[in-house]
Structures are given as C-alpha cells and as structure tokens.
Amino acid sequence: MRPDTPAENVDHHAEAARLERTAGLYPEDAEALLLRAAAHRELAGDRPAATALYDRLLAHPAGLDNPHLVRALKAANLWEYGHEAEARAIIEGVRVAAPRDPAPWVIIAEALESHDELGTAQEALTEAATLLLPPGTAPSPSVRPVLVARHRIRRMEGLPHDDWDTQADTLHSLPVSLDELHDPKRVWSLGSENPAELRAEISRLQAELGAYREALSRPFPVAMLHWPADELSELVREYPGLAAEYPSHEEHLAAIESALRELSASGTSNLGIVRGTVPSYEAFAASEGASPADPTLLPQYATTLAARGRAVAWPPERGDGCWCGSGRGYGGCHGVA
C-alpha cells in the first residue's frame, strides 16, 4: 500500500499527481489509485494533501471496497502531523466497527505502536485475532500479519508466549526465528563495537528485508475474466461474434473454475479473477485501437485489469462467498469438489 522507494530516487509529488490523473480516467479504480497517491504525498512530507485524498475517498464511503482501511490510513497520517485527538477518535471508531479485513487492524496497531502505545496496540491486535481466527481455524495468509505484529508488540512488552504467539512462530519460515527478529535488545547491538554482534545483526536484518521484498515482489496474478450475467448478456448482444466464446453464462462460470483448478494443479500460484464490465471493456478496446468484437482482446483486458489491482484471489478464503456472486459460500457453490 505504501511505496517504500526513497525520496531521492523518485519524485513523489509527480507520482502522486500522475496517480490522481489516472484515477480521473478510471473511476472504478479510484480507491486503489488514490490510496497509492496518498502514500506518495506522505512520503513527500505533504501530509495535509494526503489527508485531503483520504477525505475525498471517504466522502462516498458506500462506494469503497474497504472504507475501514481508508480510515485507518487517515488516522495514522493525521497522528504524524499533530492531530492526535482526531487520530485516536478514528482508531476507536475502526475498533468499534470490527472490520473483517485484517489490514485496518494492522495499520491502527502500527500507528499506536509508533507512538509508544504498546498496550493499546496489543489490545487491538488481540481483538482482531479473536474476531478473525475462531477457535480451531488455521490463519489465512491475509490474517498472518495480525499474528506477527501482535507477537512483535508482546515481545517488546516482555509478555510470555500465548497460543497465538506460538502459532506465529510456527508460521514463520525464515532462518532467523521470530523471537530473535522481535527481540527489543537488537537495537542495542547496532551500536556495538563487537564485529561478531554486528555481523549477527546484519544477518537478521537481511532476513527481514528478504521477507519484505518477497511480499512486495509477488507478480500480478494469473487472472481469469469473469462476466456477471447481466454484463455477459449485454456483451453478446452488442458483439454477437463473441457468442462463440461464451455459449451460456453457466458454461462461462464452469470454465473459469475448471481453468483455475487446472492451473493450480499444475503448480501455478497467485491465481485470481477479474470482473469485466462492458463499458470498461469498450474503453479498453478504444485505448488499444481495436474492436471490442475481437476475441483476442479478452485476455489482454483481463491482464490489464489484474495489473490495475482489480483481481480477487482464488480460491476464496474459508467462509467467504463464492467468486461468482451467487451469494452462497464458495464451499457450497463452485468450490464443491
């Protein structure tokens, strides 16, 4: 969410302006684009401008995919330039709302932690773990940052391990243990004159950096194009030549699930689904100087949507609704073996 490129290597003001212009061209992607623009504004030191972007998004919360994440980012930004009371109020509001997405919890906890509110940060992450990890369930990849952040803060507080800390240790796969990475005494070793201690600390930092880079470098997902029933009807009505690609909506949905399962079985990871709309597809075709009736344009359209962050991960996480939009759980819909 937050670009980490140093300011000397990129013009954050220019990049933010570019993203804001792009958001005007692609309103359906405005949330993701404006969040990135706000991050660049923060990195450029223009925190009031970042707040203005968060406010712009929150002016229409019903149209946001993740309004709680926007609020959490706004709170973290406000606190950094002196608006502590407002930031605290927003953080409390996010906690009361109890979002089912882990990201807002991690953001508000990091904001609290950065201002030495370790106890409150730990309480918030414990609330998140209780909400997102019912007893007997394994943490999904999206929930793991909650456990890791909670482990770090509890380690700094000197608290004994509990079951969730043990689970975080178990999920950790780097050569350096999580306890070592989160050891508060590590900061002291950076000032040591002992070469052995410095080498050990460099090794630990390299392990952390490797994990961070791995998370940032995940490729765009291999994305399958999904047309909701009404969009597919309009597409085939406007461009009859595409009927050969989509004999029926039911066959279209079955083909998506089958293709994704085959890709998964062959070892392909990071799979996803993008949802198409006729106006968006026509705009894409116009930008390519091609006809929407050209079937070879369909996979390019899917790839472009994925590159713009529109892909939803497949398979859905346990308990989530099916990707097809039926309203049923994935396990009782297209997830049936």
Task: Compose a concise summary of this entry.
It comes from Streptomyces pharetrae CZA14. This is Preprotein translocase subunit SecA. Helices cover 59% and strands 4% of the residues.
Q: What does the model show?
A:
The protein has 337 residues and is mainly α. Helix content is 59%, strand content 4%. It has 16 helices and three strands. It has helices spanning 12-25, 30-43, 47-58, 67-80, 84-97, 102-114, 118-132, 144-157, 163-171, 178-181, 186-189, 195-216, 229-238, 249-265, 278-288, 297-307, and strands at residues 222-226, 271-275, 312-313. It has a three-stranded mixed sheet with strand order 1-2-3, with helices on both faces. The chain is globular, with a radius of gyration of 23 Å. The model is unreliable at 1-7 (pLDDT under 50).
Overall geometric form: globular
| pLDDT < 50 stretches | 1-7
Radius of gyration: 23 Å
Helical amount among residues, as a percent range?
55-70%
Arrangement of strands in the largest sheet? 1-2-3
Structural class: mainly alpha
Average of the residue pLDDT scores: 85
Distance between the termini: 35 Å
Say how many strands there are: 3
**H/E series, N to C?**
HHHHHHHHHHHHEHHEHHE
Taken as a percent bin, the fraction of beta residues is under 5%
How many helices in DSSP terms? 16
* Largest sheet report: 3 strands, mixed
